[in-house]
Every structure is written in C-alpha cells, then in structure tokens.
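Input record, target 12 of the design panel.
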C-alpha cells in the first residue's frame, strides 16, 4: 500500500515496504514486551494493575522510533527526558539514568523515567536506547500521593535531575538511598524502580537479538525509514485539510487557589502539508499546579495530530516534522520553574487536547469527536495502615464519558485521550489498602444529548477504614465538556464528602483529612454529544 522504500538518514541503504513493515512491528513488540515485564514485576497496584507506564525504543540520537500503545501523555515528552539524560550524563555499558524533573523533559514528579544505552559488541558509542516512564504512587511532597494542592514544585515532591541509578551494572546505592529517603512507601518505590530497570534489560536484549538476525544496517535503516514514513503520512493527512487558520479556546475550571476560569487558546495554520500550532493568547502560568510544561503541550499536540491521520501512523518523532509548535514561555502551556505542575500533566493535558480538537473540528467536522470527560479525576489517599502495620499511598485516575462523533455514540466509563490506564479492580484495591469501595457504577444520563449521544461518566465511592489524607485533583466540575454540530454538553463532574448521613460538595481541587468510616464520592463528567436530534 502506502509503505514505500525509505532511505536512511545517510542515504546509504533502502528498505522495501515489506521489510520496513516487519521491522516496525518487531520494534513495537520490544516496547510491548518491556511493558509486560514492568507490569508483572512492579509492586504497586498503580503500575501492576492500572498499567500507568510507557515503554519505548530510541535511536542513537535519542529520537523516538517505537513505542507501545501505553500512555499518550508520555508520547511526545519521553524523548525530551531521554535527550536530557544523554546531554547530561556519559552513559556507558551497564549504566541506567533516572530522572523526573519536569523542567528537563519530565511531565510531573511522580513520573520517573529510566534510560539505558544499548551497545553492540565492544563499541563505545550506544547504538540505541531503551527507556520507560512509570507513575510512582508517592514521591514525597506535602501530602501522600504527591498530587496535592501546591504553589511551587518544591512542595510537590522529590525532584531528580538526570543521575545514574545504575552504574556499570550495579545499583548506585547513594542515589537509591536518597530516592527512598524522600518517599513515604520505600519498599514499594524500590520494587517499582527495580521493575523499571528490569524492563530496560529485556528491551536491550531483544533489540540486540534483532540486530543479530537482521543486521545492524537493516535495523538502522528501519529506524530512519519509519520516521520518514511517519512524516509522509502526517504530510498526507494535513494536505487533506482545507488550507486556513482554525482557532478555538476552552477553559480550565480553576487552579485551586481562586484563579479561574483559565483560558487556553490555539490557532492552527494548515497549508501545503504543514501546520503551525500556536498557543499564543493562552493564560499566564498560575499559582496552582495546573501549569503544563512544554513537554506536556508537545505530547498533547503529538497525540491530537496522530489521531488526525486516517491511517495508523507509527508512534515516532517523524510525525512532528511537518508541525511547528509555538507555546509562549511563562504561559499555562509552557510554565517555567519553579511552577507547580502536578495537575498540568493530568488535567491541563486533557484540556489542550480539547482545544486542539475543537479547532480541528472546523477543518474536519465529520471526523473529530465532541469533548470527552476532560479530566482524569485524580484521587490520592494515604496514611498509616494499622491492619498491615505500614504506610500506604493509593493513586487512581477515574474514567469518564467519551465524546460522540458523527454516526458514533461515545463510550461510557472509559479513559480517554491523554490517559490510557486501566482501573484498579475493587478486589486488588481492598487487598492492598485499608479502603472499601461502597459504590462503583455508570453515571447514567451524564452524557450529552445529540444525534449521537456522549458517553456516560462513572460513580466511584470509597470508604476509608483508617484515618487518611485525601487529595482530589479534578477538572470539568464547573465548565462542561462541549458538544459538536449542535450536540449537547456532557454533565459536569462532582466530588462529594460523605460523613455519616451528611453529604457536602467538595471543590475540584482539595486536600482533606478523613476519619475512619468517612467516604469520598467521585462522579466523573460525561462526554459531549454530536449533532442536533
């Protein structure tokens, strides 16, 4: 079909379409297997059950060449972390770098990225890199779960610039000790980090096996050729759009400290197979944690543009070559240190997608869906588990309704756009933590009306069996997910505190202490509807 011969960067070797397609699947399979290893060997339910991680393969320049279908918010940002590790460290055989700094390619502090160089034979320069990123359920900070209300990054947890967590095949005990000293759940953190490192070893082994069977030049040509192919597909997708400038805006509810609504604006200029995505006019960075750094905005743009293509585009850096991204420094979409950013990763990323899709709907009205729930509805609970005699930290994102599209209703109770995790099964949650799920069901009627109806959100109610610190970090509690083509908006979400028979409404962003027997109830937003009925 559309796969054709592709030259390597040096133009020395070309691959036929069949070989290129096979290599694409083999490289993606390596990332998939890395994810299996990470998920099966991790300690925390957040990684083991919810699969809140991403795995990928990078070439010698640190450019993304293959990624498993894990978390979209990691798509465009992980390469920045890999390149930060390469730029700041001399990675040798047996070394592994670790970092979570949002101002060095990271997203937010709980997302820890590990990077390992892959060497062929006795060569001194890496042939490629294996990397993965996983969300750790506690990384320190002012509250368990590291997702609390904060006004600067120093309150959000332990910030790790690029360092070697493994040196010459041995764990760097000083770095590991420092890392564990800054988390409330040390055994779990070390188990999850060692699982990440183990996944890198599998990725390196499988990549070297492909080099052995297919030859180095073929693998290098495939890496370059796949980026070229992704670029061509993206150019073709952009050429299908009518040339013009497409504008849109949407709003975050608030930052948790009284600022809101917070506008995000975009102008997408399309023409000649290229696009300029310009967020000029978006709000300045704010006091609360909903600031998105550049890596987040890049990821959201990567994801939205990948969705735009009619064909499946390989998830690599070639996709962004025809696209120029403008995100003004110091704005809500390119926050500068020492801004708090925990919510930028999980909430503002969703709103950036909403804004991008709202603009693209003017260019491709029959293909773009209405807004989905627009919030990951983050819930963190932590404290001391008197039954098991240990500290605990639980984190979960709660699914909502998907937006409807022409001829297709939105799905209900599903993670959408920048999150692609599973839920934590009730059985697993209650086995790990001093908590009980008292209600978990579809929130009927929360989807927007229309010729195609938006998907419904969820209701998830959790009872604390011990005194606990609870943080909620949510959006779309006051500004509803929009409908398209005359469709109705989805219902806004609700956060409710249940104390005995009393119920009180919680704000979208809050920290609170719950006593034994008290409950927190999260009702997530529905998706927007499409078309007039």
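The sequence produced for target 12 reads:
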């Amino acid at each position: 079909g559309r796969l054709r011969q592709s030259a390597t960067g040096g133009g020395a070797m070309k691959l036929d379409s069949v070989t290129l397609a096979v290599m694409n699947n083999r490289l993606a399979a390596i990332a998939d297997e890395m994810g299996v290893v990470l998920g099966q060997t991790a300690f925390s339910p957040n990684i083991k059950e919810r699969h809140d991680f991403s795995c990928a393969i990078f070439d010698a320049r640190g450019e993304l060449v293959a990624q498993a279908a894990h978390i979209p918010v990691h798509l465009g940002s992980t390469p920045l972390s890999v390149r930060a590790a390469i730029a700041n460290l001399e990675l040798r055989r047996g070394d592994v770098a670790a970092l979570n700094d949002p101002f060095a390619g990271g997203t937010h502090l709980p997302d820890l990225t590990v990077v390992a160089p892959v060497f062929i034979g006795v060569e001194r320069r890496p042939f490629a890199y294996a990397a993965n990123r996983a969300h750790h359920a506690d990384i320190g900070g002012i509250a368990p779960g590291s997702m609390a209300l904060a006004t600067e990054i120093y309150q959000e947890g332990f910030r790790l610039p690029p360092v070697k967590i493994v040196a010459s095949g041995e764990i760097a005990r000083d770095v590991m000790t420092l890392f564990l000293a800054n988390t409330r759940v040390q055994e779990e953190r070390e188990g999850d980090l060692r699982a990440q490192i183990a996944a890198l070893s599998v990725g390196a082994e499988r990549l070297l096996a492909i080099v052995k069977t297919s030859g180095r030049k073929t693998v290098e040509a495939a890496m370059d050729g796949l980026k070229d192919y992704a670029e061509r597909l993206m150019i073709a997708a952009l050429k299908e759009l009518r040339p013009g400038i497409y504008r849109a805006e949407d709003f975050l509810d608030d930052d948790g400290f009284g600022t809101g609504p917070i506008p995000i604006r975009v102008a997408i200029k399309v023409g000649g197979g290229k696009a300029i995505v310009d967020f000029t006019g978006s709000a300045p960075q704010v006091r609360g944690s909903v600031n998105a750094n550049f890596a987040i905005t890049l990821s959201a743009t990567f994801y939205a543009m990948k969705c735009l293509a009619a064909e499946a585009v390989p998830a690599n850096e070639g996709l962004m070559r025809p696209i120029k991204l403008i995100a003004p420094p110091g704005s809500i979409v390119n926050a500068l240190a020492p801004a708090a950013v925990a919510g930028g990763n999980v909430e503002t990323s969703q709103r950036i997608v909403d804004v991008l899709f709202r603009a693209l709907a003017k260019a491709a009205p029959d293909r773009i869906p209405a807004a989905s729930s627009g919030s990951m509805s983050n819930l963190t609970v932590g404290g001391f588990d008197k039954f098991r005699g240990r500290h605990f930290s639980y984190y979960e994102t709660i699914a909502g309704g998907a937006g409807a599209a022409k001829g297709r209703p939105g799905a209900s109770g599903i993670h959408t756009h920048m999150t692609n995790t599973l839920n934590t099964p009730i059985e697993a949650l209650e086995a790990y933590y001093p908590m009980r799920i008292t209600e978990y069901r579809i929130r009927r009627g929360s989807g927007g009306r229309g010729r195609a109806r938006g998907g419904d959100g969820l209701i998830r109610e959790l009872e604390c069996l011990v005194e606990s610190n609870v943080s909620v970090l949510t959006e779309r509690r006051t500004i509803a997910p929009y409908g398209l083509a005359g469709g109705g908006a989805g219902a806004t979400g609700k956060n409710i505190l249940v104390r005995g028979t009393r119920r009180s409404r919680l704000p979208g962003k809050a920290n609170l202490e719950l006593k034994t027997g008290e409950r927190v109830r999260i009702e997530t937003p529905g998706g927007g509807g499409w078309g007039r009925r």
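Residues 369-533 form one domain.
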